[in-house]
Design goal:
Layout lengths: L5 H11 L6 H7 L2 E6 L3 H13 L3 E6 L4 E3 L5 H4 L9 E3 L1 H5 L3 E3 L3 E5 L4 E4 L4 E3 L2 E4 L3 E3 L25 H11 L6 E6 L9 H16 L4 E6 L7 H12 L3 E4 L7 E5 L4 E4 L4 E3 L2 E4 L3 E3 L1 H5 L9 E2 L13 E3 L4 E2 L7 H20 L8 E11 L2 E12 L2 E4 L5 E2 L5 H27 L1
Parallel strand pairs: 1-2, 1-9, 2-5, 9-20, 11-12, 11-17, 12-13, 19-21
Antiparallel strand pairs: 3-4, 6-7, 7-8, 10-18, 14-15, 15-16, 22-23, 23-24, 23-25
Helix pairs in contact: 3-10, 3-11, 7-8
Length: 430
C-alpha cells in the first residue's frame, strides 16, 4: 500500500482539488457527504441502504474491482455446482440508485482532515466515513507462505477478480488419480468460521464423482470448529473415508510450507506431501485501517457496539470482517446487518434523524455439504456496554441425525440457502 506523508497528502489534495465539488457548494445541495470504502457485503449494503433511506446525503463508494465476486458460494465453484459468473455482481444497481461508484483503491485515510486519498490521485472529502475493507492475509505467518506462494498453494479466501478460486478449481480438476488434497486451516479469528469445512465438503463432492480414490487431509490449527457435528455427519454419510480432519492437538497446526516440493510441515516437524494445497493463512484487518491507526495490537479494529464508530477516530465507522465484535462471527450476513446500524448512527447528527438506541444484529450461515444437503446456524445479537452479546433463546442450529430421517430437511435447507444468497445479494446490489 502506498503511504503518504502529511505534506504529500496536502500536495495531492491541491492537485486533485479541481476534480472535487467545493465543500460549501456540496453542503448547500445535500445534507452532507458519506464516503464508503469497500464494496463487499458491508460496503455495498451500506451504500444501498443510505441511498434509499437518506436520499439527501451524497454517497460515494470506493471499490477497486468493477464487479464483486462473493466469498459465500465460492466453495460451490470447487464442487462444480456454480460458475464464476453466478457469484459475480455489478455495481450498476447502486449507480442507478444515485450512488457514485469510483473504481479505485483507497490508499490513505486522513482522520483529522476528513479526507481519503485514492491510488489514482483523487482525494475525497467526507463528513462521515464507513470503512468495510475486509481482511488482510498475514503473509509469512506460515513460514514460506507469501503472496508468490499463493500461486502454487492458492488461498482462495477473498473474491477479488475470481482468479484464486478459479486456480484452485483448475488444480482440483488436474489432480492425479488417487492424489492428495491438503488444506491448512487457521486459528480464530478469521473470515467465515464454517467456510473451510464447507470447502472440504465441496472438494469431496467433486472428487467423489471425478476422482473417487483421492484423499483430503485437512490440517486445522484449532481443536474444534463451527457446526462440527453436522459437517462430520455429512462427511461420513456422503464421502466415507475420503476426508481426514487433523485437529491442532493431533499435530494439525501447519507452520511451514515448501511450495517447490509441495510439502506441508506441521508444528512438530512432520512433513506431508500434497498434490494440491489450499492454505488459508492467519488474518487481520485490511491494511487501509491498520495503516490509519484504527486497529489495535491484535490487527483488528475496536468499535462502539451501537454505532461501529472506531474507538481511535471520530466519524469513521468500521464494519464487516475488519472489526472486533465477538461473539458475532465475521460473516457476510453480519456485515450486511451491521451496515444498516452504522449508516443510521453515522448519519444521525448529519440529518437530524435519530440513531437506534438498542440495535439488533442478525446472522444466518448456511453451509452446503453435498447435493441437496445443507444446514445452518442462526443467531440474534444485541449491543451491550461492554461489546456484543447473544440474545437468549434466539437462533439455533440445524438438527443432527441420519440422512434417512432428515433428507427432506437437508434438501429444504439447500433451497433456503440458495434463496438466502439471492436475497442478500439483491439487498446489496439491486
Amino acid at each position: 500500500m502506498t503511504h503518504l506523508t502529511r505534506r504529500a497528502f496536502g500536495a495531492l489534495l491541491g492537485a486533485g482539488a479541481a476534480t472535487l465539488a467545493a465543500p460549501g457548494l456540496l453542503r448547500a445541495q445535500t445534507s452532507g457527504r458519506l464516503v464508503i470504502i469497500g464494496g463487499g457485503f458491508g460496503g455495498a449494503s451500506a451504500a444501498r441502504f443510505a441511498r434509499i433511506h437518506y436520499p439527501d446525503v451524497d454517497v460515494t463508494l470506493v471499490e477497486p474491482q468493477t464487479s464483486f465476486v462473493t466469498c459465500p458460494y465460492g466453495n460451490l465453484i470447487l464442487g462444480g455446482k456454480r460458475q464464476l459468473g453466478d457469484i459475480s455482481h455489478s455495481y450498476d444497481g447502486l449507480r442507478a440508485r444515485g450512488a457514485e461508484v469510483i473504481h479505485d483503491r483507497a490508499t490513505e485515510i486522513d482522520a483529522e482532515g476528513h479526507r481519503v486519498a485514492l491510488a489514482g490521485g483523487q482525494v475525497l472529502d467526507y463528513d462521515k466515513l464507513i470503512v468495510s475493507p475486509g481482511i488482510g492475509l498475514r503473509w509469512n505467518a506460515i513460514e514460506g507462505y507469501d503472496e508468490a506462494a499463493s500461486e502454487v498453494f492458492p488461498h482462495a479466501w477473498w473474491g477479488g477478480d475470481g482468479s484464486q478460486i478459479t486456480l484452485l478449481r483448475a488444480q482440483l480438476e488436474a489432480l492425479p488419480e488417487g492424489g492428495i488434497v491438503g488444506l491448512a486451516i487457521p486459528d480464530n479469528p478469521f473470515r467465515c468460521p464454517p467456510g473451510p469445512y464447507e470447502r472440504i465438503s465441496m472438494i469431496a463432492h467433486h472428487l467423489k464423482q471425478a476422482n473417487p480414490t483421492a484423499k483430503i487431509l485437512a490440517f486445522d490449527a484449532k481443536e474444534g470448529f463451527s457446526k462440527q457435528g453436522l459437517f462430520q455427519d455429512a462427511w461420513e454419510e456422503l464421502y466415507g473415508d475420503m476426508i481426514e480432519w487433523v485437529p491442532g492437538n493431533a499435530d494439525g497446526r501447519i507452520v511451514r510450507v515448501d511450495v517447490e516440493n509441495k510439502l506441508f510441515i506441521s508444528e512438530f516437524g512432520e512433513e506431508h506431501r500434497v498434490d494440491v494445497g489450499n492454505v488459508i493463512p492467519p488474518q487481520y484487518a485490511a491494511s487501509i485501517v491498520r495503516d490509519a491507526g484504527l486497529a489495535n495490537d491484535t490487527g483488528w479494529v475496536p468499535v462502539d457496539s451501537r454505532s461501529f464508530e472506531a474507538a481511535a477516530a471520530r466519524d469513521i465507522h468500521v464494519i464487516g470482517d475488519a472489526n472486533i465484535a465477538p461473539p458475532m462471527p465475521k460473516s457476510g450476513y453480519v456485515a450486511n446487518s451491521t451496515a444498516k446500524t452504522a449508516v443510521t448512527a453515522a448519519l444521525a447528527d448529519m440529518t437530524g434523524r435519530p440513531a437506534w438506541d438498542d440495535p439488533v444484529y442478525f446472522n444466518t450461515c448456511y453451509s452446503h455439504a453435498g447435493d441437496n444437503y445443507a444446514f445452518s446456524v442462526a443467531a440474534v445479537f444485541r449491543a451491550t456496554d461492554d461489546g456484543f452479546a447473544n440474545t437468549p433463546d434466539s437462533g439455533g442450529v440445524s438438527p443432527r441425525g441420519p440422512l434417512s430421517e432428515l433428507a427432506r430437511t437437508r434438501r429444504l435447507e439447500a433451497r433456503y440457502a440458495d434463496a438466502w444468497y439471492d436475497s442478500i445479494t439483491a439487498d446489496m446490489f439491486s
